Fold each of these.
Amino acid sequence: MRKILLPILIASFVLLSFVPYSTNTPLPQKMNELIEHLKYYGHLANERTIVHTDKDYYVKGETIWFRVFMTNGLSNMEKPYSGVAYVEVVNEHGDVVDKRKLKVSDNGAYGDVSITNNWDTGKYYIRAFTKLMLNNEHPRIHVKPIVVQNETNINLGQKNGNLDHEVNIDVRPEGGSFVSGLVAAVGVKAVNGIGGKLADSGVIIDDQDNVVTNFELVSPGYGKAYFTPLSNKSYFLRINSGDQVYEKKLPEVISKGYGLHVKEGSDYIVVRVAGTNEKELEKSVLLAHKGETPLSVYQLGEKSGNTEKLFKIAKKDLGTGIVSFSLFDQLGNAKCQRSLNLMSDFGAVGLTLDKETYRSSEPIRLGIEGADYLRGNVSLSVVSKDRIIENKEVAGLQMSALGNSLATATQMKGSGDLSELQLKEAVDAMMILDNNYKVDWEKIKEFKIDEVVHRPELGIMVSGNVGLKNAVNASKSSVSLTGNGGSLFQESSMTNAMGDFEFGPYVFYDSLNVLVHVNKVGAGKLPKDALEIDIFDTWPAVSTMRSSNKGGIIGEGQRNAGQNLSDKLMDINDEVTVLEEVVVESDAWSEQIARDKEYNKLTPYFSYNNRIVADSLKYKLGAVSALDLLMQTPGVNVSGIYPNQRVLVRGVGTISESIDPLFLINGAPTSADAAKQLLAEEIMFVDVIKGASAAAFGGRGGNGVIAFYTKRGNYNNSASVGPVNWVNATIPGFSKANEFMDYRSKGHINNNGEVLYWAPNVAVKDNSLIEIDTKEAIGGYSIVLQGLDQNGNPLRLEKTIEIIE
């Protein structure tokens, strides 16, 4: 095994003294505390997952190839802390039909799920999450919908109906509230059932049916309106689609309050804060931040003297991506919020083809431009057009559902119908409407790092609890773990005050057989037949936001209330033990490995010097007693006649008064007399253990260990001479992803080649060129690239080609 240090970057938690305040006036203590809590909340409760698949529509028997992209922080600019991602496929009833545990690397993970014939047809949902995300009451989990059908030839009309969206109308005021007498900007969304704009325009009317203002909608259905609301009136949104008139009531107008208006210029951002009277702005604070990172703080002073205040902020000081503005009153209560998408050149990432029509077996040469605008690796698929959403507006709508105005803008710009001003206004409307960037300041006020339940998982943990049947406290017990991860390893630990223990983190695939020994309970000796050892094996539940301490989720170091917050984050650093895989090279060896794997489930150890399978030897040797099976075993001397035989394991040092080895029957310690009574015909196999392999048994194994396992496993061990102080368990490891090209070469995909290519982790460099084989492919195909842009937003690019004979 080898150890890899995976440090968590603590540098992002900047000290408050580095926040670029715009004035020299000290901030109120409440604001200092709030900004500090914002940083920790952003990193310890805001990992985000985004799931992409090779296609949207599947047939039973096919494979779902998927990629999980991950970010951390409210800004989405940080790498995930977690090293473990959980992926679930959920049916329409909420039942988990399949799941995977994946190792996180390069901003995410990838894998595959086979669709079996016992799946029902219909909609399914793929979601991914980490334990760290469960610190958030509303985890930032993107759910990817797919459709599974019986037939190979999917009916396109039926297909389009499976993922149709209902008419979606939404309207929200900039800053969060309509305040009487303060000019309001309104974000409008009006999307029809197939993801396009509901109409070209609409109006806002008052309760007397008077038109207050009108607005324009651009594809796929976004726009902005401006008007000054009054507290004695109600207002409504009205849109005529041609087939139907839709109306939606706007939020009520409040008589007093605050307003926050943000306008983007070519070089500056102008922020206007307003109140219904000048006292409301006294000692108010405006915070500009990127997620959890403060950018600048503006104080309005002891006496503002005005009902509004303007701030002019250079865009170069804010960078690109999502920038948020929050307005607080003099008591530190959040009154208004507004986010702005300072888009970089979103057209810089692109796909290029040498042509649009190819002959079968002629390679596709695909170029990827704009690597500097991507974060990490991307996924790339080439799939039949019939297997993905046809309507690009729907695809754009799905990206918008991720809270990604940039990706939607890319889809919108591709239409070529929008001016730059129309595009910016539409994207800004999305930001007003998008709750994904709204900060729950009340929750942040209450956020305490001492109460964080879930730490980042860097690898797989082996945890459990030691207890006593008589309820005596089992704290501070000595526990050792022995495992076989390609080579034998052993680690020791002490239980905490509740008897919990934890080993890891480890990286291994499929499963790992482990043995946990309790060597000592407190200051006393091991109690006979009173020890209980429980190994935890729980899959985290998305619906369970908080968990109990049982299982070692919270370490003792986290319970020290006096520990500094930054010091606590240093506890996240850990070493990950990478366990080597065992490679099987022949069929005969495979059979032996499979047999030994079954035998190993019965044993309280993972290393032995000799294993004797009784049925293969007992008649050949003429064995009568169980000890007779050992007569030709190297290093073992058997003397005497049944039932008065004696065994000496050569090559071990005698460290006890007796020279007898330790005898086990079905894993339980037993006396030498009991072992001598066993007959060869009762035995399934015998293990001989000595030297370092017997270390797990401590001093009792100093003369070697002879372990008998009976065929029925029900031997009466009333003759046991010591406590059973061990338990073995199979710990599930990471799921190992299959290789798509292996599937294709072995004929595991459909004959009509719906998926020509799937690469979940493509490293993109400037002007990357990828060749894709088109052998046996005929028809229309879509090339889809999915990933993250430089600001952590999801990105989707698509090209369509035709393959002919």
Amino acid sequence: MRQITISVRTIAALLLLLLATASAFAAEELTEGERQWLAAHKKIRAGVSPDFPPFEFVDEAGHYTGIAADYMQHINKRLGLVYDGIENVQTDEINSMVKANRLDVIPCLGITEERKKYLIFTKPYIEIPVEIITKKSSNIMTLKDLKGKKAAIVSDYDEEDLIRRDHPGINIVSVPTMEDGLKAVSFGDVDALIGNVFSVTYHSGKMGITNLKIAGSTGYTYRPAIAVRKDWPELADMIERTLQGMTAAEKEDIYRQWVRIEKFGDIGSKRLLLMLLSVTMAAVTAIFLLFIWKERLKTRVKEKTKELELSKEALEKARNELEKRVTDRTSELREANEKLRIEITRKQAVEVALKESESKYRSLFSSMNDAVALHEVIYNDKGEAVDFRVLDVNPAYETVMEIPRERAVGTLSGVLFGAHSGQFIELFAGVAQKGVAVSIEAHLPSVGKHFKMSVFCPARGRFASIFSDITEHKMLDDALKASEEKFRELADMLPAIVFEVNEKGVFTFTNRCGIETLGLTHTTDGLDILKTIGDDNVGAFKAHLAKIIEEQTVCGGAEFKIKSGDGRIIPVFIYASAIIHDGIVRGVRGVAVDITERVLFEKALHEKSLQLERLNNGLEARVREEITKTIEQQHVLIQQSRLASMGEMIVNIAHQWSQPLSALNLILINIKEASDFDELDKPNINDFTSKGQQQIKKMAATIDEFRNFFKPDKEKELFSVSKSINDALALLSGSFRNYLISTQLNSTEDISIYGYPHEFSQVILNILSNAKEAVTRFRNVDGVITVDVSHEGTGVRIDITDNGGGIDAGLISNVFDPYFPSKGRDGASIGLHMSKRIIEDHLNGSIVVDNIEGGSRFTIILPSQVPA
């Protein structure tokens, strides 16, 4: 093929010469009606694409510029239009903005059948071929060659829909900008770029890309035109006539400014030259037709001139009348002008106040620690809210939401927060429309945080959101609730009544056993505890509560009678202690163990003893029968002892929890004060959370220790003596601290024995509890309990001593008898009796007690049994 040698400048000059006479055929002068229309519509609202060079874009200085902008500048000079702001729009927003009367003119828009329904289009002021751009080394020439290959098209360009419809075999890759498309084909990420030749030329020249070419034509053209709202046909007609009246030189100046023709030499100048030749031939034809039209117009002008001369006198008369009206109107205008001046002065003062308010708002907006975002609501064609877009965010937004500002601003909520944003659209749209503020708490999975959101309406159609991060508070609340739930579950598992009453004796908590025993439906909250006490015990129990509250201490336990839901009187053994917060008694917490079986057993045992005295010693069979029954009652006694121990353990847990609960209460008070004084920053929250979690872990550990302690032993095992003693000391540590009792474990080495570890720990616990009671009744301060562990032959010796004053010499030999009063305590020494049974019967050891100086000593000797 021969190479084309005619230069582009030569063709442009020829085109200018052929079209030079076109200026003689300018549009007709404006009619009076058109002038009146323009006078009534001085300010026009235009919608432009901010990033579509060289056709139209907003430069770095914020000025609207480009080919379409130059055309509009020419039209503005011709018609005297003034724009009331230029609004940046996206293609998919044009329909809704036109229907809402927010746009009047769109300078650069492709013509489609859908857009013709609500817009009037001028004739295209330029036709640009849509070409295939490839690397110079590529052999692609047509759209058919692109089948199965990747082709980049700028998103929202009109040609994208055409290519997808007519050529479904092409793998379309949407890119944000023309520059991204040129980079993609230049770097080989895609096989080709499809776009209009003006945009390609402009951007390739700007980017300095030289390895591309125009490979072939798509057969499509980009035909931009000026669009006017449907109800303004007058303006559309005037713009159309102005465009037709532009000279070729004026148009050529616009194109030369924005399109560097020489650049096409690198990527396909031959096709552009052919295009310009076609435009030249079309222009010659248009000039010939315009010449014929001009001759006809001269004839009509002569006829009109004659008619005008005949009406000259009528016009003179009308002129005089008009002058009189002008004089009258001038006076009216002066008055209106003065009113307008006053109104302008007032508006200027308002604008100054608004600017000051805006400055204060911006300062507050930027300095807030909480995340703040301004949004606009997005509506569909039916006027329904479908999404909302972020318009602006403060600096704290990036830190709190962990979303960069450049990603957030301009992005739809569905993109930022995913499907979870849909639940807020209707609520926030209501705020934007009605102006009624709302406050909600929500979890945003995409951010992974809990927020308190305060939403209000700064302007109609928009809303602002303040995001306060409450994730740490939520975690702390959940942990406290979980801990409380665990305590309630544990209390509900116990076969004893666990209760709490306030300082007035009104129930605030009861476990399941209490509810069932007292015959209530759901809860005892609000019920006076005295109404559940047997009538003959009310006075004694009232005094018992008063003593606990007055002394702010733990009561060792006492027997009372309570009334069940079915009218039965049930004997119980009650352990109770004061609930103290911030040094003030808030109520009483306790455990009531049903001792009905024990009372019945005591009664039956007494009756059997009387019978045995009357029986003949020779009635061996009767004796064996009674012994068997007695053994069964002993099993009941063991169970009662275990329940009594569990009651004491609940009280001990209450002591163990008293300190961490007080610490948690103090943490919550500190959080509230920090929030009230706006000092609740992230370091403080982390500190509060860490301290709170430490206290909760302590409480959870106490529950685990309690659960493990009462787990029954199924078979013997090798266990550490020191560890079992330490476990018992740990369970009683809170009670010891409350009574200012110090403890000490002395062990030269870790000695292990073979037996039942939990039964051994229960024995140690019973002896330690007995020692605590002795110390607290003998002295107020400086109580000491010492445990010494050492070898005894092939076994182990444990000595437990206290400084509680010792045991009466006349009673010391009977301390291991069942129900024998120990050290003057209320109640019976079931624990010591069962301890002796466990040591001698289950562990094959021995236990004795003796007095030492200032106190007593329990000595346990156990063999080091080894499993066979």
Amino acid sequence: MAALSTAEAPRLIPERTLSWFLGTALGYFLLSSLTLAGFPRTEAVVAFFPASGLALAAMLLTPRHQRPWLALGILVADFTADQVFGRPILVAHLTFAPIMAIEAWLGAWLVEWWLDGRSPDIRSLADFGTIVTASAIGSTLVGGVLGGLAQRGLFGLPFFPALWNWWAPDLMASSVLTPALLFSAQQRQETATPSPGVKLEGLLFLLTFGAVLWEVHMNGIPIGASQVLLLLAALPFLGWAALRLGPAWTAWGTVLLTAVSVAATAYGRGPFIATSADPFSRMLWCQAFCMVTSLSMMVLAQTLREQRSAALRLAEALQALTVSNARIQAQFQGSSDPMAMVDSELRLVAFNPAWAELVGHSTSGAATLGTQVDLVSSSAGDGGLGGGAWRRALAGDRFRESVSLPTQDGNMVAYEASYAPLQDGAGLVIGASQVLWNVAELDQRHAEQARTQRLESMGRLACGVAHDFNNIITAIIGYGELIKGNVEPGSRVERQAGEVVKAGGRAADLTKQMLAFARRQVMQPIVVDPAALLAELHPLIERVIGEGIQLTWKGVDAPWKVKVDPGQLEQVLVNLIVNARDAMPKGGRLTIETANIDLDPLIAHGREVPPGPYCQISVSDTGSGIPPEVLKHIFEPFFTTKERGTGTGLGLAMVEGTIRQAGGAVLVYSEVGTGTVFRILLPKADGAAEARPLAGVAPSRKGGEHILLVEDDPTLLSLSRQILESAGYTVHMAATGAEAKALPAATLAALDLLLTDVMLPGISGFDLADWMRTQHPQTKCLFVSGYTEETLQAQGQAPLDFPFLPKPYSSVDLLGAVGRVLDRP
């Protein structure tokens, strides 16, 4: 039996519908009826029985558990055709019909058993052979034995002629018609609807081939030449179809050849009449010719198809290899690290421009391909470029060593050289490679990597701390506002409560700065016109910088739109302007400029920003400038050069984090004594500028709706309840999702809004909302959390678009968010 490869997935057979079974039964009835009605009543009537080929193909294309229904349809169709067009012998037909159904079912089972349980893939030449072999020595032979015994018992016919008369026509059908049907079914599965040109070409082939066969068989061509003419007519046509049209059309050509040849011979016409006076013998010659020609042509078509597929796969592999080699070559040539390779004779076979440049000013002469690496000797000794280390690598050793090489100005630079042997597919060493790393640059890379990891860790810490702070700050601000609203205006308590609220606000601002540095702050990005935003900000900038600093505006009249949170972009600009003001204590010039730029890959490389169109907003001053040793630290959190108590060290970290979160970048250039320029790059956005959403204003609505408040922090639960009830809402409370689900059904059915924290013990707020939408679709949802919307989405816990109120929030923020959600249609 053929082994099933572990990499080969079984072909999935779709479930069949009633129309499939009815169509198959009808097709079987028509083919059987045509055979019985169209052939003369002689022994040759059974020479070709296409209905059995249809039955086997249909069985192979039907799932195993549905085959009993197909067998029943075949049985009924065969019985009906025999009764209508065959001999009117009821007992014989009741015997023959089950044998035909069993034969088809057994044929499919044998083929799959031979293939270790999988369905055959007609595209495989081996599977094609399995179908023919299993039917030849299996199902059709078993059917022939059963049919021969039945005919002997019913009609007294000799067993072996009766066996042959049953087995031969079914074998012809399963070897010719079954592959044609399977090829066509496979072709429909592999491709979409074939092009009209392919269909037309195939139909023209069948029409032309059929006309030639008819001419050879039926139109009185001399008998002596007609056998040769049949060969000359069939083989070129079928060979052309195998080469041009593929297995499916070739198989249908063999079906046409078999049908015409068998019919003509049965009626005493065609080239096989001269072979014998015995009808049985000349039909045997016809059957042998059709079988050999059909199988040969289908094998040829399959072989050509597999060769074309192999050639296509080879071409695709070569194309992929070419692309891969081009990428590797581009990386090799474009690397700033010097790289070179030698063969087993120490001849240079490859080196990149960085290595050639290093060799050009580090050695006595420039290296070229084919040069012996021994001749590339450093002016300061071997220096790592000579042959000593290369020979060690050719011996199979992988190692690193430190070398010192002179630069163009004569200074010695330390490099770390890495050597490795190059091996072929058999594991033989055919060369060696060398990579040189500038030790100073390598240390800088490691330092940058360590700094990035440290900042990421600090960002995660800031995010976690901010979550807890947000809960506390919400309570401070909320209760402070409640106290202010419940005491006499202007009283000492009212003033003290106001200071509490202000302190809470400053704490909230500090938390936002921490989140901005960590790139986890809540953003509400919209399409913004930078010119309009700067125009709105102009009065504030004038107040911030004072009278001693000259403000200059430059830039394009229509800067590109950007998608950003306008409030956060204003905060970024104000931070930069405040820093510029502090750098010019004796006055100076502050310039704000806009520009539209296309960042090409060369400029974008190394700046962690992709190339493309950007709107640039620059803030430059003529202040003291930033020293180089300070410049490399300015975006680090809590780094400040201001006096203790005058700065948090989060201003520029917030600037960089906010712009990065918006998909942009911040570039800085500074010279001591000249000034500093900060350039903000924001990606160009499509569409018109959007109106800024109103914030901090509660809608003027009376309330009255029923709200389910779910919050696991008791302080915030009580605070939020008081704020909502003061606005006229009816509030139902729960500390967990399980408590919320356990509320009375009448209470849940009357809810207008679910206001829930996201992080709850047990059931999360999102899961609770999903349950609520299922049970009570009319209930709207609003989520609150100390975690940011982006963090929740990054953790896979949030839908892409959901009403969200971040903590900390004031009473105005809470009532405004609730009102907006409830007022949605």
